[in-house]
Design brief:
Layout: H1 2-14, H2 24-38, E1 44-48, E2 65-68, E3 75-83, E4 88-105, E5 120-126, H3 137-140, E6 144-145, E7 160-161, E8 164-166, E9 171-177, E10 182-189, E11 193-194, E12 198-202, E13 208-213, E14 219-222
Parallel strand pairs: 9-14
Antiparallel strand pairs: 1-4, 2-3, 3-4, 4-5, 6-7, 8-11, 9-10, 10-12, 12-13, 13-14
Amino acid sequence: MKTILAVASLCACTAATAAGYQDMAGLIGQARQFAEASLAGTQARVTVGVVDTRLRLPACPIPPMPNWQGGRFEGNTAVEMSCPQLGWNIRVPVKVERETMVVAMRRPVTAGSMLTPDDVMLVPARGNMASVSVTALNEAIGQVVGQNLPAGLILRRGLLRQQQVIQSGQKVQLMATDGSFQVSAEGVALKNGSVGEVIGVRMPSGRVISGVVSASGAVEVRF
């Protein structure tokens, strides 16, 4: 019985190559399995491209060896299937897309609104969206939107600005520090300012000093 099973298994494995040519559909399937196994647990999506199954390659006496082309397994790449014994090599096109979590609008908001936890949510998106999108809720909450945003929109970094804490003409505290001492003086802001922005402050002497707007509403100068 064991002998019959072994023969049946051998026949199943070699049926497609009985004519002496490599089973191209099986070769593509092996490339897919290799790609998916290599990226298991990474939340990557693998799409295998088109290979002409009419190609006639001599049947490899051992299972063909798979490798990532150039060691690259991101974006548009390929799995190389090779048979060292017979000297052939074929590239199976593969597209690797990784999913990441990005921030999207839970509900519509109007221009000038400050985002709250009820306004935003995390949604999955293609990995290439991470470079231009907000990827953490705490990066969005408390920020101000510069335009009307509809529900479901993925939040791009360029759509946000820090909340304005200083208005032009407002009296502000200019704080100077070098780490060992700190002095402050009152001046007048020369323009509106959001947290992290650099603005000019006119001092009573008429001198203009530039500093960085802090969350407290002061303008900080570091030496």
